[in-house]
Structure formats: C-alpha cells, structure tokens
Amino acid sequence: MRTPGYGKRLIEGLLSGLCVICLLLTGFPPDLGAASLFPIEVAQPIGTEEGLWLGCTSYVGYFGSPLPGLEIERTCDSNSVVTPWGPRNLNLANLAGLKVVVRRFDEVTGLLGDTIVVTIDASALQTGRSRVMSVSVDTVVAATVDCVRENASRGASRWPRLRHLRLSVVGPSRYARYDGVYAVSPAVRRRQFH
Fold first, then answer.
1. Best label site of 26, 77, 91, 175, fewest CB within 10 Å?
2. In total, how many domains does the chain have?
C-alpha cells in the first residue's frame, strides 16, 4: 500500500538524481570538491633580468568551489619562484599593482551562459615602469591579458560549457583595446594519478 505523497516524493527523488547526473555530464569535476586539497597551474607574467616571460606557477590549496575561473583569479596573485637568491615573487602583474576580478552569475557554474566575465583592474598601476626589472607597464598589461586568456582555457578543460571570455580592463583608456569577447578552447588536460 502506497502512502500519501508517494508519487511526489518519487518525482522529487528522480529529479534530484537527474540534477546530479546533469552536473556530472556537463563537466562538474567531482574530484575537486570544496573540502579537497588540489593543485592548479596559473599562467603569470614572470619577470627576470632577461625581460618578461609567460610562465606557470603552481598553487595548492583548499580553493572552495570548483567554479570556472580559479586560475584566472590567481593571475595577479603573488608567487614564490625559486631563484639563486632564494624564493622571490616574480609576478610582474602583482608587482605592478594589477588586480583580476571574476564576476559570478550563478551558483552552479558561475558563468553567464557559456561566458566567463572578467575585469582586469589597472587603475592602481605603477607609472612609467613596473617595479621589477625594466619592463614597461604596457607590456605587463598585454602579457596579463594573454595570461587571463590562457587561464580561461585551463578552466575550460574542466568546464566544457565555457566557450567565451568577456574581458574588460579598468584604468587608463589606452587599455580599452583589450576589451572584448574572446573565444576559449580547452587546454590539454593533464592526466591525474590517484
């Protein structure tokens, strides 16, 4: 004998199970849960005596939600690169005062449809030259834009729905040329060993 409300509970159970399956099929990374310690690689403009290089810095931590944009959010974070003089922060975007903001639109993916919305805040840039080496801040901003685009592709390898990056640069008007929508293609995903 079925109890009252049996049909309603059955449908609710099926719908919740279907939601979980949809999340898994759309690229929700089950191995990157909120309580998991996991690594990410972040493209950053690295400064040396030889100039500016686009390099990768690894970060390991409890990053909370596995939403797209984890790598993008750390584009301008300080890093710790081993040098002959000990660990140093060589991230020129960080040293020049750039900030990156990823705007979140929904709780499941954080995306606006298939687009991630990002702002580079260049309003606090150091004038003339960056504070590390002899690289101009205009070059640092251009390299940071390239790094944000690379980091978006890293996120797309976990989130197949991510297809576009809407980028704006706040600050001096000469950087408005970087404003726009860029196509995002997934980076090659590295194999994980467990």
1. 26
2. 1
